[in-house]
## 1
Amino acid sequence: VKRVYRFGKDAAGVNVTEGSAHMKALLGGKGANLAEMANLDLPVPPGFTITCQTCMEYANASNVWPDGALEEIHEYRVDLEKRMGKTIGDDNDPLLVSVRSGAPLSMPGMMDTVLNLGLNDRSIHGLIAQTNNPRFAWDSYRRFIQMFSNVVIGLDGDLFENAIISMKRKRNVESDTQLTASDLEELVQEFKRIFSQYTPQDQYPQLVEGSSCAFPQDPLVQLKLAIEAVFGSWNNPRAVLYRSKNRIPDDLGTAVNVQCMVFGNKGNTSATGVAFTRNPADGTKEFYGDYLVNAQGEDVVAGIRNTSPISELKTVEGLQEAGSELERVFLILEQHYRDMMDIEFTIEQGKLWMLQTRVGKRTAASALKIAIDMHTEGLISKEEAVMRIEPQQLDQLLHPQFDANAHYDVLARGLNASPGAAVGKCVFSAKAAVEAAERGEKTILVRWETTPDDLAGMIAAEGILTSHGGKTSHAAVIARGMGAPCVCGVEALKIDAQAKEARVSGTSVVLHEGDLISLDGTTGIVVLGAVDLVSPSLTGNLDTILEWADEFRQLGVRANADNPEDARLSRSFGAEGIGLDRTEHMFLGERKQIIQTFILNDNADVRKEATDKLFTAQQEDFYGMFKAMDELPVIVRLLDPPLHEFLENPRDLAVEIARLEAQGVADEQLSEKRLLLSKIDSFVEANPMLGLRGCRLGIVYPILPVMQVRAIATAAARLIKEGLHPKPEIMIPLVCTVRELKKLRATCEQTVQEIADEFGVSLEIPVGTMIELPRAALTADEIAKQADFFSFGTNDLTQTTFGFSRDDVEGEFIPQYLSEKLLAYNPFATIDAAVAKLVAMGTDLGRKGNPKLKVGVCGEHGGDPDSIHTFHNIGVDYVSCSPYRVPVARLAAAQAAL
Ligand code: PEP
Ligand code: MG
């Protein structure tokens, strides 16, 4: 196998690139796109890429190199030196290289990079002689030692930062740039000393000199260790967490790119920056990004120094030409990739170099605008435009915003880095955010800047607030990817993370941990206290893309809703009906009392009275629902949950009785409660979810379905009389044999007919069933003979197929199953293959039994894009999901069809 691929030009200026953009699985995103840019004749510093497969082989063999790999790397290193006419770490004219990670799927900032490799105590003098710039050279060397120590050896970055701080104190200067060449030379000595003190000898025997480790002087030792460290970073905890959060497989591995260094820190005609070909926050067609003059790579992304906007680059003395060249490159890249691109570049003494390009991450709003604009510009087809939007991302647009009518005072302003609004308690560390989330508290993570180590806290928090860094800082990029609101670069915020407080310049406000704040990532505003939030509606670009999606999709999309307000909302989101109205949700509040009376009294008259009351109430519920969904189908499911769910908890009641007994309350006064307890106890089942629920309730208590069906039919009859066109359908839950359905169907039909006669209208109300037990799926052909439609209840079907309780997913074992990969993913969120097989079998058998059968899915999976692909392939007629998932489902259904 070939493990190494080169990119860039040879000594004669001929392109000798071996890879291309299509080879991401092999070369990683960075390596493949470096090759592609070199093939486009863009200025790419030469180098070579070691494949992702080599990383996995190395990792799987417990960090032992596969046969031949080191020899191949050696060959390509010698080749690179020949192409450059320089040797890595040469005493007189050293070639310096960067060693960068680059996985097949982008994992921004999660893995490691080493810059300036090849410097040592001798080659530093070569670099000084070549550049005539001792300050630059010593600064490069100290950066190299610092990065190498941190990335390769794992030494704490603070050891080095503190040494810089004390040097600045000693020299009485404010910023790093005020340190002189000899200050930096002194720092290099100090850094090497720190390296020797902290590097564990047992782990690095090859570095031991005398009684401690010494900073490696041999460039080839440096290179080998750096490559190994980048391979190792594939499995560092933050990379593992990022992958599981973003469902990136663990077996892809990372490539390693060894590339000639170019320097953005060679003075005022040098710069480094990151940019997007369009605005990644709102999609505006403009060059967007930040740069720093006289700085090196990571300074920009790390958000450590405040940057300038890319639009100013062309106006800076000595950078104009490179600035124009950069704009030319932006256009070439967009035309070539036909997408919005994200770019890293360096300008070395006026000359532009491209260090990376990839398809740019963007907010949902930006994705919509870019897709529509690019279609209008003739760059992409309508189908491609629809495919460009990540369905999950649409959630962002349905994110809360500050209520336009809310009154609030702006505490501070920053950059609107990631849209949406959030309210939460201030926390000053990722750990505090995670702990608060475990207690169920909402937080805003307040940091000077974020680093990849903050990832867990960023996930746990509602929103992210930083005092430093631009719109391409780590916090901004990650927040946009997650869809979390983020305001960054709030300079007025003076954070003391140690003291867990932040002062706000120009005010007397001091924020303490736990104080409530609100932030709006759409506008960049920070407010003290909680601001009311509102959910936005479908507008503009979202509406356009969804209309395009509707042209392509084959699946219908309905909503799960049980009140007129949700029904109207889902209709405004494009739902084509209600796929599931869970009527038990209508039995809350005072109605709970009525149903309790029903359950706890054997007396037929009392029961009749209770059901009459329920009838009146339910009739109004259905009237509202059918009216809101006029002309569209509304599937009403008859009562489903175990009855004890409507009753008081027997344990609480027993405790109360015991307490009253202890207080000496007289027996007579307790008798009623005791009677209640014994009744409730009589309803207790060992496995209530497998007990008296679903259609079994209607069979044991026929008066209940009769009441519900009368209410449905009456509401429909009234609306017909008013000239509307209600389309109710009745659904029987948890059927396992056709006989259950046959019996209840007869009840339904008879009851509907009675109401039709009573009102003198014709009522055609289809009767169908849920398929949520394996036995039902396996006998679907028989069941379908009694059903007008099926709706797969994939929540219960998953529960009963796996034998996993759906109510305990967060409990003990499923999280462990997920982390040990005994389960690839949570089957209650994304449909499992075996459950899908039951759905497919049930659908096929059902249609054999009844060719007119309509088939839908109404479990949670109906709103999950991956599951929607599965249901499309199975060929069901529609999916049904919660109102806010309806836009997501419309888009996912179109993508499944394309
Ligand atoms: C199901 O089981 O998938 C379903 C939709 O019904 P419920 O969630 O109400 O049990
Ligand atoms: Mg169910």
## 2
Amino acid sequence: TWNEVPAAPLDPILGVNQKFQADTSAEKVNVSIGAYRTDEGKPMVLSCVKKAEALLLEQSDLNKEYLPQRGDATYVQLCQKMLFGEKSKLLASGVVATAQTLSGTGALRLGAEFMKKFAKGKTVYISNPTWGTHNSIMTQAGVPFSHYRYWNAAGRDLDLAGMLEDIEAAPEGSVIMLHAAAHNPTGVDPTAEQWGEIMTVCKAKKHVCWFDSAYQGFATGDLDIDATAMRAFADEGLPLFVSQSFAKNFGLYGERVGTFSITCDTPEAVKAVMSQLDIIIRNLYSNPPKHGANIVKTVLSDPALYQEWRDELKAMSLRIQDMRTALYDELTSLGTPGSWTHITSQIGMFSFTGLSPEQCTQMVEKHHVYMLNNGRVSMAGVTSKNVKYIAKAIDDVVRN
Ligand code: PMP
């Protein structure tokens, strides 16, 4: 039975990780996956998370009962504040519908399922390039999608004119997927002024803007600054979807903690939308897991832990910035042909190196440096120990 089922290709990101695991070379380096590593190359559990877990263990009234489909109400409120800000007009008027989700991916899928039921025929416009799963989630969910130009390869910067033109050309009321901060994979975000221009076009075309927030705090090291663009759109009254992930900024990758929000016109609409999200969730996975949400809830509601988290988040983003400088310095001292200033000017977890697919294959096959074929290197996997080796590998594939 099932002999006719063809083997699926490896996932473009997780597949590279699988190949890395199977590689027996002592020199191998994994910079494929967007997961933070310490300078010793080890995964890290934040200290605020460990403290929150210790506090949770002491709580005698904690049980393992089911959460409602939409998740934990207190957790959801705290997440809304983190996204929209303490002074949000939308939150004050009770017009944001938010459900707890299985991290960012679950939030994206929930949004896609909502679109399939209530935005039939609308197309989602996604940046080119993007995190590949944006596209495949839409395919799997059966939601039509298309792309808008984003990356200007020649200048290694934003193709603002192309982006605006494509968003303008999309049918009125389309859904425009935007990376809230620290664009994956390019590491290039619009400036405040450019965000203003994007907002003007989206508003004129009555588009729904879908902010995917997987890196709040990783672009600048500050949670509020990284939410500025999205909050400006919210204040301007544009209709929004927001998917939120705590995988990277809390280091809660495997705990699957996130939210999905929809802004509405009235609190009555919020009630109806939430009731529909409940039905979708009930039939996807019934209800979300509790542990990760309890950790986030504990940290966000305790001023000392909250401050500790912000400090740890800043430290993670600073280490990544240090590694950008270190890699740039190594390439410069090797005299590697080409300009490498984009390594230090790009932000967030990734560097979009500009290496060609052939050079990327060489990086993996000849040098055991596991990176994505589109040239993306996770700077969070670069350490003081491996940076020299990575630079030498880049130098070799560029020269040969
Ligand atoms: N959106 C973007 C842009 C991402 O880069 C990621 C993580 N790589 C996610 C969403 C979601 O990840 P997770 O499901 O682990 O929260």
